[in-house]
Amino acid sequence: MDSASVNKDGAFGSCSAEPVNCCGEGLELKLAPQWGQLVRPAPAAQRPLQQLKVSNNLRLQYKNTLFIGKVVHAFSALPSTNSHAQELLSKSTPIEGTVITAAEQTAGRGQIGSRWYSPASLCISMSVILYPRFLEARRQFGLNIIAALAVRDTVQHFLADGPPCRVKWPNDVYLAGKKVAGILIQNQIAGRQLQHTIIGIGLNVNVEQFPPALPLAISLRQAGGALYDLWAVEEALGRALEQRYLALRGKQIASLQEEYYENLLGYGESCRYLLPGGREVVAVGKGVDEDGRLRLWFDGQEQAFGLKEIQWLPD
Are residues 82 and 157 in the same domain? Predict the structure, then answer.
């Protein structure tokens, strides 16, 4: 898992003044139990989605949370919500749970510098600032666990009758063998303790069709056959993340890890992997070590692999 110092180079760039495309006229809203609104398509004559003008850096609040989302910096476009969070931390100490969200990311990042596809007003692109100083640096993989489980909780809620939602190590979230969400976590460490963390989440919500270069991507719309209120999904995600974070703070790591393994692709199962050097093997997942490396059993022994050292191959 990445551990990164605060970026002080101000490289997040300028912000677009384009309006945020949220739910608006021409949509039929139906309350989904507890967590928000499900937006079902209106008749074709009433489309496309109307735009709701929202000023850049508008401060909003999530409902029904204790601290996550009590300050929300909302932008119509940012290069990267994680980079903007780093910029905030370099200049001040935002309150815990501060959220940076953008209707569009123009330079979204994934693990180890990979790019994240985020079309305007169709996905959730958000970053949450937390101060997990209760957590030792060597236990930082716990943040991957709670972030992945929170995303899975949210997806399963809105797709209660949809395909099973699984986690792919370290923290991608998959539906029906395709990626619905990615997570980028950046930590600041001092000595043996974590000082702050930025949890960046990209969730594919209303994308109807992905580029041919992304054959293994999927959205809630594709899986559920409906349009979703982005703000309602984001609020639900914030609540789920807060619940999981409080469980981690409450020293429930053993039960969190058990649930993570229950939903981990390849755990206790034979799956195909591509090793460094191009060799393909069938291995059984044995879990994750303290350094966040994936433990695999093959060739009569157990080996551990870090990010970008091994590639899971879908069936």
Answer: yes
**Cα gap 181→171, rounded to integer Å:** 9
Instruction: Give the model's pLDDT for residue 116.
Output: 60
Do residues 8 and 90 lie in contact, with contact meaning Cβ atoms separated by under 8 Å? yes
Domain containing residue 214: CATH number: 3.30.930.10
Listed residue (164, 167, 144) closest to 156, CA to CA: 164
Cα angle for residues 142, 144, 146 (degrees, 5° grid): 70
CB neighbours of 204 closer than 8 A, spacing ≥ 6?
122, 123, 179, 180, 181, 217, 218, 219, 220
Q: What is the pLDDT of residue 178?
A: 95
Asked if 192 and 198 count as a contact pair (C-beta separation under 8 A), the reply is no
CA–CA distance, 210 with 63 (Å, rounded to integer)? 32
% of the chain exceeding 90 in pLDDT: 72
Query: Which pair of structure tokens corresponds to residue 219?
Result: 């959205």
Both tokens assigned to 293:
């490396």
Q: How far apart are CA 282 and CA 271, in angstroms?
A: 5
The residue-averaged pLDDT of 48-66 equals 61
Where in the sequence is the domain holding 212, given as residue range(s)? Answer: 27-262
3-state DSSP helix/strand/coil % of the chain, to nearest 5: 25, 30, 45
> In the structure, what pLDDT confidence band is assigned to residue 22 with cuts at 50, 70 and 90?
very low
Average pLDDT of the segment spanning 195-216: 96
Phi and psi, residue 118, nearest 5°: -145, 80
CATH number of residue 283's parent domain: 2.30.30
Contact 121, 75 (CB under 8 A): no
Task: Answer yes or no: do 232 and 275 share one domain.
Answer: no
Task: Please state the pTM of the whole predicted model.
Answer: 0.81
- 129 - beta bridge partners? 198
Q: 118 and 251 share a domain?
A: yes
